[in-house]
Design goal:
The complex is a heterotrimer of chains A (329), B (249) and C (306). Chain A is an all-alpha fold and 329 residues long. Chain A is built from 12 helices and 4 strands. Chain B has 2 domains: 164 residues, P-loop containing nucleotide triphosphate hydrolases (Rossmann fold), CATH 3.40.50.300; 71 residues, no CATH class. Chain B has 9 helices and 10 strands. In chain B, the strands form 2 sheets. Chain B has a 6-stranded mixed β-sheet, with helices on both faces. In chain B, strands 2-1-4-5 form a 4-stranded antiparallel β-sheet, with helices on one face. Chain C contains 11 helices and 2 strands. Chain C has 306 residues and is mainly α. The chains are: A mainly alpha (329), B alpha/beta (249), C mainly alpha (306). Chains A and C meet through α5, α9 and α11 of A and α4, α9 and α11 of C.
Chain lengths: 329, 249, 306
């Protein structure tokens, strides 16, 4: 048992956040505000996406501006298979659809991961400004691909008539779905934390600090960067699958380029290179969106300059501010 | 001829119309300290870059241990046993001294597709890292973040990282650059202590250092080697005196 | 008949390429000289379009709208450079991406507040509303021809500016060696602001000319911005010549792909599949072009940095 008197500030922040996350559904249900469960689920799911971006952005120093592509493709994997399952038809005449979460979620990760492997293989041959523009361009390519894909709804997207099934659980119940999202996020944060401390994680950190030196030491850095990019893409695919389940809807707007920008903004706002920080950033961003958009439809005129101020003056992010000097980087 | 560890064969490298290497040939034998000297702009840095694999020559070949490595990248050459240090200190500044060396040890231990164990608590990385730090005299500074080390200490760390990969040949690009007198002396002692255990190709401006450390010297002028031999031969070489030493000394 | 159709599509592709060149020329200089990524370049295009549309509506003259759009975009661009971007040159690319992303959100919302959320549709100017028969039997809209002509004029102007003038010499020197320009004792800050203003004016020009062709609406800058990125990646960062070649390639591939890919596919597969696959393929064609160029030449066709 953790001795509560000996908690440092960082552990205290983690403990409070975890307790709040676990207690949220009973509290908001008691207050008769069930809407907040779905908002909180969205926070957890985007938190997963932002944390996965942090793996390449914060730890690896790779400024990828196309993360929403993997998010969207993960969502479409679930949506397309669901539709075929619903219609009893076959995908490309090859295999039947499915609404089993244990099949479609890993498949979403696989498809997004393979896509990240392909996109990374091309973009990581370059660096700097090229890398930013190329990742952005690839995401836009996929956006247009899905817009032109009339079979699956084109511009209008694809509606599903329910969520995936999960053996032994009722995902259509918002509370159950929320806890599944929470479990998956915690699992990733734990695995990701292990990963960043491992030998592989040291290589990724080394590449961020001094890529030229890593090459001179004998590391084939391209392979490691590509592996990191692929892992992050796969996890973003999982978060896309979850959002498809939450909203029972997928559309090309999931991977429009401003979505990549938003995920990046949330990551920075929370605190880069901390893995858990971006989750705080997501929570703050979505909350701010709710509050400001209720106040004025022109809330982005506040957000824009705020972003610039954050960049200029508050790069440690919310998490860095919460845990004080010892936290963050 | 065949006992050379590293052999550069007529390297040519142009930047636009300017030749930085113009038919450069060079041999480093196992275990020797070989100095590469020449006036500014003679193409020493370009030569090092081509030997280490950061730059590809327009023509010519590089052999290492008898194997043609001309088309290998810098990382593959490093794995083959060709380590280098940088003229401008190149460290992982956010890491401690020990982390820096542990990274080099990790590079030497094969692939790093290991996603699980905590690398900072891995004795197979940390123990040898501490040994190497002790060898270069940084044993007491292991936990200092490398950005906070003194300049001379950073140069020592740079050397430690190169040594940690257990190379057969060390390319040292001005290891004493920017050092004070005492620091230079320490570095000289360190290099002298390495003599015989591995080959060193040393680029250095300080002629006292070169003539007291080197077994052989190659003189580079306008991108080509005008002379190569023992220190005494080089000192006696008229062409070298005209082209270089005469102007300096 | 088919030959005429191909000719028409070639001209359409040329016209799109010219528009992209106007955007890419300014942006590639900013990338090259200042090593700065600026996502807000599309916003200047949008500002140009809105100013042109408004002035044209009040005065009834497209030319006046066009003439107003150029200085308006240049002034907005230089103001943004002075206030926000100048502090970002020394920062890393991530900071630049975020801050200029913030600028886009700001400008989009500002335009929405000033002009409202609805799209504005501009008329083609009276004098250019007709068609021209370039070859007998092939009428082509005069306005589109005018755009092509304007693009060629700008390309010639830039060629003259960059190869024959002192500013051009500094721009070239800056693109290949940033430190050197400072060492020459040039007021680098002023040079940057001027280059930025020039790029902004070209973006404004593109926006004004796009007005009668597309809807003038909030967010119109972003789609074209990403196309511009593709152009710059293909051409090589910092190279105006690369921007020209890249822009024409992208314009032609995109236009011809959309026009003819489905038809060509019908020759080998059944019509319904051909239309579907053709639409998907042609929407991705320029990105596939980009991949092909990058695999062949990772730094673009005409890399400015050694």
């Amino acid at each position: 048992m953790v001795d509560l008197r000996n908690l440092n500030r960082r552990q205290a922040v983690h403990l409070v956040a975890l307790a709040a996350a676990i207690l949220l559904p009973p509290v908001v249900l008691a207050a008769d505000e069930p809407f907040f469960i779905s908002l909180a689920s969205r926070m957890l799911i985007y938190g997963l996406a932002a944390a996965s971006l942090d793996l390449i952005l914060g730890f690896g120093g790779m400024v990828s501006f196309g993360h929403a592509a993997f998010f969207g493709v993960g969502g479409y994997t679930v949506g397309i298979l669901f539709t075929h399952g619903f219609q009893g038809s076959e995908f490309l005449g090859l295999f039947p659809g499915s609404d089993n979460a244990l099949i479609v979620w890993p498949l979403a990760m696989l498809v997004s991961g393979l896509l990240a492997l392909a996109i990374g293989a091309v973009s990581l041959r370059t660096g700097g400004v090229y890398f930013i523009m190329i990742t952005l361009a690839f995401a836009q390519m996929l956006y247009f691909f899905f817009v032109s894909l009339e079979t699956y709804g084109g511009d209008d997207g694809l509606s599903m008539y329910g969520r995936s099934r999960f053996p032994g659980l009722d995902l259509s119940d918002d509370t159950s779905f929320y806890y599944v999202c929470l479990a998956l996020l915690l699992l990733f944060l734990w695995l990701g934390h292990r990963l960043t401390r491992s030998r592989f994680g040291m290589v990724i950190a080394g590449v961020r600090e001094n890529e030229r030196r890593m090459i001179a030491l004998g590391f084939p850095v391209y392979r490691y960067k590509l592996a990191c990019f692929t892992i992050a893409g796969a996890v973003a695919g999982l978060s896309g699958a979850l959002i498809a389940n939450l909203t029972e809807f997928v559309s090309p707007s999931m991977m429009v380029w401003t979505k990549s920008g938003e995920i990046m903004v949330m990551t920075i706002m929370g605190g880069m290179g901390t893995l858990i920080g971006p989750v705080f950033g997501v929570a703050a961003f979505l909350l701010m969106e709710e509050v400001l958009s209720a106040w004025t439809e022109h809330w982005q005129i506040v957000l824009g300059p705020l972003l610039i101020l954050i960049v200029l003056f508050a790069k440690r992010g919310i998490y860095g501010w919460l845990v004080g000097r010892e936290g963050g980087r | 001829m065949n006992d050379a560890l590293l052999r550069a064969n007529s390297l040519v490298k142009h930047f636009g119309a300017i030749p930085a290497s113009d038919g450069l040939s060079l041999e480093v034998r196992p275990g020797e300290i070989h100095a590469l000297i020449g006036p500014n702009g003679a193409g020493k840095t370009t030569a090092i870059a081509q030997l280490s694999g950061e730059m590809r020559p327009d023509a010519g070949e590089v052999y290492f241990g008898g194997r043609d490595i001309t088309r290998l990248g810098a990382d593959a050459r490093a794995r083959a046993g060709l380590a280098r240090s940088f003229q401008i200190t190149s460290l992982f500044l956010g890491f401690t001294a020990e982390d820096n060396v542990a990274m080099a040890i990790q590079a030497h231990q094969g692939h790093s597709f290991r996603f699980w164990g905590n690398a900072r608590r891995d004795a197979t990385l940390r123990d040898p890292a501490r040994d190497v730090l002790a060898r270069v005299g940084l044993g007491a500074r292991a936990d200092v973040v490398s950005a906070n080390l003194a300049h001379g200490e950073q140069r020592q760390l740079e050397l430690a990282m190169a040594l940690a990969t257990e190379p057969k040949l060390l390319l040292l690009d001005e290891p004493m650059a920017g050092m004070g007198h005492d620091e230079s002396l320490r570095m000289m002692e360190l290099l002298a202590g390495l003599k015989g255990s591995l080959a060193i190709l040393l680029v250095e401006h300080d002629m006292d250092v070169v003539f007291s450390l080197a077994d052989r010297i190659t003189v580079l002028v306008y991108g080509r080697a005008i002379a190569s031999g023992a220190p005494a031969e080089i000192r006696a070489n008229a062409e070298v005196r005209d082209a270089y030493l005469g102007a300096d000394a | 008949m088919t030959a005429l159709l191909v000719l028409e599509q070639l001209l359409n592709g040329l016209q799109l390429g010219v528009m992209l060149f106007l955007l890419a020329a300014g942006l590639t200089l900013v990338f090259g000289i200042m090593d700065m990524i600026n996502l807000a370049h599309g916003s200047l295009y949008m500002v140009g379009a809105f100013v042109a549309a408004t002035v044209a509506e009040y005065t009834g003259s497209f030319m006046l709208g066009l003439l107003a759009a150029l200085p308006a975009a240049a002034l907005v661009g230089m103001a943004v450079e002075l206030i926000a971007l100048r502090t970002l040159y020394e920062r890393n690319h991530l900071d630049q991406v975020l801050a200029t992303f913030g600028l886009i959100l700001f400008f989009n919302e500002l335009v929405r507040i000033v002009w409202g959320p609805r799209a504005i549709f501009m008329d083609v100017p009276e004098a250019l509303s007709g068609t021209v028969e370039i070859v007998p039997g092939a009428p082509y809209p005069a306005f589109r021809l005018a755009i092509i002509a304007a693009g060629i004029a700008v390309a010639l102007f830039l060629y003259f500016l960059i190869t024959r003038t002192r500013i051009g010499m500094l721009i070239r020197a800056g693109a290949s060696n940033r430190e050197m320009v400072g060492a020459l004792g040039v007021d680098v800050k002023l040079l940057f602001t001027l280059v930025f203003g020039l790029g902004a004016a070209l973006a404004g020009l593109a926006g004004a000319m796009a007005g009668p062709l597309f809807a003038v609406e909030v967010g119109m800058g972003e789609g074209v911005l990403i196309l511009t990125f593709v152009v710059i990646v293909i051409g090589g960062i910092g190279s105006v010549r690369g921007a020209l070649v890249g822009a024409l390639l992208v314009g032609l591939v995109d236009t011809l792909g959309r026009a003819f890919l489905p038809t060509l596919l019908r020759l080998v597969v059944e019509p319904a599949t051909a239309d579907g696959v053709g639409a998907s393929l042609s929407s991705m064609s320029i990105y596939l072009l980009m991949v092909a160029v990058l695999v062949w030449r990772p730094r673009g066709l005409f890399p400015a940095h050694g």
